[in-house]
Amino acid sequence: MKLAQSISENALAIGKKQKILIQVNNANEEQKFGFSREDVFESFIHIRSLEGIKIEGLMNMAPLGIEENEIRKLFSDIVKLRNELEEKFNCEFKRDINGNEPGLQNSRSSRFDNVKGR
Fold it and tell me: SS3 for 18?
């Protein structure tokens, strides 16, 4: 939350609204950052209220060395989480740059939403 607050304050200081992705650590890896699935809803409310931030979507990174079916499950879970957030908060995140359901065509990709801001 401190990082989001800082980003918002700095963006406002230069007259900008910064686009961000919320990182979700749905594999619960200790060495990676991001919100747990359980915490993302409460955090979303706070981050969304920051005037200097525009939430563009979600992102995550699958662990190295896991099976393809495990990767697909993790990315499928992020798509479900994205859909739940969109429904609960009446918002819409950008899809990947090809309009695909992210992570389902290319399960090694971490592009869940438009990282390049297009």
Answer: strand
| Residue 58 burial (CB count, 10 A) | 23
Instruction: Assess whether pLDDT exceeds 80 at residue 95.
Output: no
Q: Cα separation of 77 and 118, whole Å?
A: 24
Which residues, 6 or more positions from 53, have their beta carbon under 8 angstroms from its beta carbon? 4, 7, 8, 11, 17, 18, 19, 20, 47
Which residues are within 8 A (CB) of 99 and not within 5 positions of it... i.e. 6 or more apart? none
Q: What secondary structure does DSSP assign to 27-86, as a single string?
A: T--TTS-SB-HHHHHHHHHHHHH-TTEEEEEEE--PPTT--HHHHHHHHHHHHHHHHHHH
Q: What is the mean pLDDT of the chain?
A: 81
In this prediction the pTM is 0.75
Which residues on neighbouring strands pair with residue 24, listed in sequence order?
35
